[in-house]
């Protein structure tokens, strides 16, 4: 059995999706008493379209935890009113017990957000923030206090060598000259929380060779890289500047603590007590380093 794209879309929209939603409504109705449920969502971009998948989570009378997608809403103006689509499929907002989403303003802003709107209806509404997002934001704010834009350095250096095999081979010669083991420069993707720390660690391992290479090519070094790396005009002034930059890169080793916490938070089998324990452990480690003045 096979069918074209149009017929497949019609089957999903007009038969499979309504039946799936009906099964959710029957499960939530229980034995005549409507079960409370949580709303989960995370905004997604598809081209220039802003989409919101809506998932409901609830416990059945048999104590089974179920997660079911019930809608996929397009909301181009990115307002907080997309959740009213729940009522379109027969779910009442009066039974919402918790809300879980990414830490964006439209979801958790102080004014006119999804959470504030729902909280007006339910004073005991549980707030399910994304803890991994919180940890990542803490890292980004901390890095902004450095005199060097470390994230920009990683992106610019990787971009310079990734587009040219000749540059990569020339860089290898500096590794050989300095008697340093060759290691590939790692890419950092700004939307991937766990890619920054490995990229910085690899940059630190390759730092002397990379900076020596850029100084050696003089005016051929792109102005943007000269600026972000704070390259000296003369090789004999490299030592003092290099010491400062290396110290700031070494400070970024503290990211290991944050990376460890995010990995625990992103596990599929993580429970609420484990999330609390992971966040408390992260806070305790940071406070201990602050007290010891060891970073």
Structure, explained:
The protein has 295 residues and is of the alpha/beta class. It folds into 2 domains: 5-129, 2-Layer Sandwich (Nucleotidyltransferase, domain 5), CATH 3.30.420; 136-255, no CATH class. Helix content is 52%, strand content 13%. The chain has 13 helices and 6 strands. It has helices at 5-29, 85-88, 105-108, 114-121, 131-143, 150-162, 165-177, 196-205, 207-216, 223-229, 238-251, 255-265, 272-292, and strands at residues 37-41, 44-46, 49-59, 65-74, 96-100, 126-128. Strands 1, 2, 3, 4, 5 and 6 form a 6-stranded mixed beta sheet that branches. A hairpin with a 5-residue loop joins strand 3 and strand 4 (65-74). Helix 12 packs antiparallel against helix 13 (272-292). The model has no long low-confidence stretch (mean pLDDT 81). InterPro entries: RNaseH-like_sf.
Helical content (DSSP H or I, runs of 4+): 40-55%
**Terminal residue distance:** 63 Å
> What is the total domain count?
2
Tell me what portion of residues adopts beta-strand conformation. Answer: 5-15%
Protein name: DUF4371 domain-containing protein
